Amino acid sequence: MNEQLVEEYKIFLDKGKTERECVEEIIKIAQENGYKDISNFSHLKTGDKVYVTKMNKAIALFEIGSEPMEKGMNILGAHLDSPRLDVKQNPLYEKENLTYLNTHYYGGIKKYQWTTIPLAIHGVVCKKDGSTVKIKIGESNDDPVFCISDILPHLAQDQMKDKASDFIKGEDLDLIMGLGISSDCEKDDSEKDNCEKNICEKNQNNEKAQNNSEYQKNKDVILSLLKEIYNIEENDLKSAELEIVPAGKARDMGLDRSMILGYGQDDRSCAYASVRAMLETECKQRTKCCLCVDKEEIGSVGATGMASNLFENMVAEIIARTEKVYSELTLRRALANSFMLSSDVNSAYDPMNASLYDKENSSVLGGGVAFQKYTGSRGKSGASDANPEFIAKVRNLMDNAGVKYQMAELGKVDQGGGGTIAYHAAKYGMNVLDAGIAVLSMHAPWEITSKEDLSQLFECYKSFLDIV
Predict the structure, then answer these.
(1) How many CB atoms lie within 10 A of CB 206?
(2) Three-state secondary structure call for residue 16
(3) What's this model's pTM, rounded to 2 decimal places?
(4) Between the chain's N and C termini, which has fewer beta carbons within 10 Å?
(5) CA-based Rg of the chain, rounded to a whole angstrom?
(6) What are the tens digits of pLDDT across the range 197-206?
(7) DSSP string for residues in 235-298
(8) Are 141 and 149 in contact (CB under 8 A)?
């Protein structure tokens, strides 16, 4: 087992709980290993190491090989986004004596799993003057955390009759931001008496006011803190990108410390292993690439998702700097002749829910790298379905490198399914195979992986980058 890899991976999980944070961390690691922003180059030659970013939420690392680009690349493609809660654009509101932050869930989650656990706020607030304020609240030991409340069991008779998908509504996943009494009232007895007197007078003056303004003082407290700490006005939240994620660090799991419990391992386990493999292999004939994209959990949409022209535009920038004359045909040939491992996780066989799995075709924790010929749902909807010739080539490579692997599917055919970025890459005509590790409790706030699987995945990716 690669203990150093595991420890550094846990640090990466802690530092990168959003796509932006992941990209920032990847750039830092890449620069320490000789990579430079592509904007620094007008011409690229064999051995040059560059990175290309998009909107601070997607990144690709390239190391230029000795062969012409039209011969194709060896690509590791992962995604950086994970299921979470996003803050709405007009989020702050009051309800009785509590102030809330309004959210909209992102990706496939079980909504009930996000209640009553400590949560943190990560992201950016972009102001009209062009400045950007970074937000991270809930990760330091002296930080406050946030929470979504739930009904006590004594009063939950009606709730417990609902289906699990219904008893927590999406509109009820709102964060408690503060209570209706300012912390200024807790300084000392004399100040507290004055504060209570002021509150009493205010309540008497507002006796006939509408309920939605009765506790306006609480929202004002929250806004004043945002102003004091971050110099943010309420209207600045209209142009914010704030994500609600589980608060806390990735931890060793199990008495034998054989597993990792952490948020966002789908798909940051594969992204981190891909980046590390990219940095720790020497480029040979074929140009190698590590691609980390956004928006996979909601269909790879948008400017930073794999369904866009993101990747081909990145490759076009490379070709424009490696060829004497840029050619669209060179771009098409480069993509079509490439090999790619769609670096994404698979569901781990769960003995407590064995009926959901075809055991002989499931991946298990500790079983090594999980290769999936196809993903998709039921009748392979949304799958790329890798060619057996390419699978055989990868199998031979893994056997020669001594990498432990397993062939697997997500679960039983009619139980459901899921997708990866593989079919978006396959549209270029390249050979693509899904390759990741097994994850238990996938898409939960805290996911479980095997340390040994992560180590095997790293070795797999290193071997693949040398494929010819």
Answers:
(1) 14
(2) coil
(3) 0.91
(4) C
(5) 25
(6) 444 454 444 4
(7) GGGGGEEEEEEE-S--EEESTT--EEEETTHHHHHHHHHHHHHHHTS---SSEEEEEEEB-GGG
(8) no
